[in-house]
Design a protein that fits this description.
This is DUF2785 domain-containing protein. This protein is mostly helical. β1 and β2 form a beta hairpin. The protein has a domain of 161 residues. α7 runs antiparallel to α8 and α8 packs parallel to α10.
């Protein structure tokens, strides 16, 4: 409650007042409570304050590096990674979101060493690969949104100057992996994952790569159907994949690009619709 009261009282319309705060102590408290189950404290005040502090230059390079290093540790982004249905997801999900903020900041005003930037990029990929708690909104505790936040971080990683073309295939594989995780995406996860795809498009990824990728997703869905049949888990997976394909189709249409990929998506959606609904 003391931290919540302090953050409520911070007014960024008065920068001099903010600069009088013991920033090291505040950052330590915020990082300790980043996974609070109080949605107002976690979403609005802690993350909102991080966004203001990072993007409006209230933090020193040393402080930003401390936040980065802390977020990357096993008590934050990878805190109890692999668990499902526990409150640990809030710590992981909001730590990766702060990491996305720092990568965005480093694109505009570089402060990370090449080694640290590469470590952060690798962390964004690894997080989405290893996160198993796919819940979006949790009653009484607010947004977990682990896949959406991880997708935001992956998009920032792809936009970063240290992201190399050798990572493209790994990123596409990671997005595909997310589509086949257990759970049903109902909170715009597909749209957030597409931010990473857009970032790849901006880097020059085109039809040749994307068509092969879409076909690979379709092959995996076919294999799941062969193994699982008309089961609840399969229909949940099919729903996630089909929704992603449809969102992807219209995103590419709005961007007026990747005609061959759009045709491929149209064909696979038509195939799976006909398979189940005639």
């Amino acid at each position: 409650m003391e931290l919540k009261t302090q953050l409520k009282q911070m007014n960024f319309e008065y920068p001099d007042q903010v600069k009088r705060v013991d920033m090291d102590l505040l950052l330590e408290s915020m990082l300790n409570e980043i996974g609070s189950t109080d949605p107002e404290l976690r979403d609005e005040f802690i993350f909102g304050t991080f966004a203001e502090l990072v993007m409006k230059d209230y933090l020193t390079v040393k402080q930003m590096n401390i936040v980065m290093t802390t977020c990357l540790d096993d008590q934050h982004v990878f805190y109890r990674i692999g668990e499902k249905g526990t409150d640990a997801v809030f710590t992981r999900s909001f730590s990766i979101l702060v990491l996305a903020l720092l990568l965005e900041k480093d694109r505009d005003v570089p402060f990370l060493t090449d080694e640290d930037a590469n470590r952060a990029i690798d962390c964004c990929v690894r997080y989405l690969q290893e996160e198993q708690d796919t819940r979006g909104y949790v009653e009484e505790k607010g947004w977990a949104h682990s896949i959406a936040h991880g997708a935001d971080a992956l998009a920032e990683a792809i936009k970063h100057r240290k992201f190399g073309d050798e990572r493209v295939a790994q990123c596409l594989e990671t997005i595909q992996l997310c589509l086949f995780k257990e759970g049903v995406y109902v909170d715009d996860e597909d749209e957030r994952l597409l931010l990473s795809l857009e970032a790849l498009l901006e880097r020059g990824v085109g039809d040749a790569v994307l068509v092969s990728w879409i076909v690979g997703i379709e092959d995996e869905l076919e294999l799941r159907f062969t193994n699982e049949g008309y089961s609840v888990p399969f229909f949940h997976t099919k729903g996630n994949v089909m929704q992603f394909w449809k969102s992807c189709y219209f995103r590419l249409l709005f961007l007026d690009c990747c005609v061959e990929t759009r045709v491929t998506i149209e064909n696979v959606v038509k195939k799976w619709t006909k398979k189940f609904y005639g």
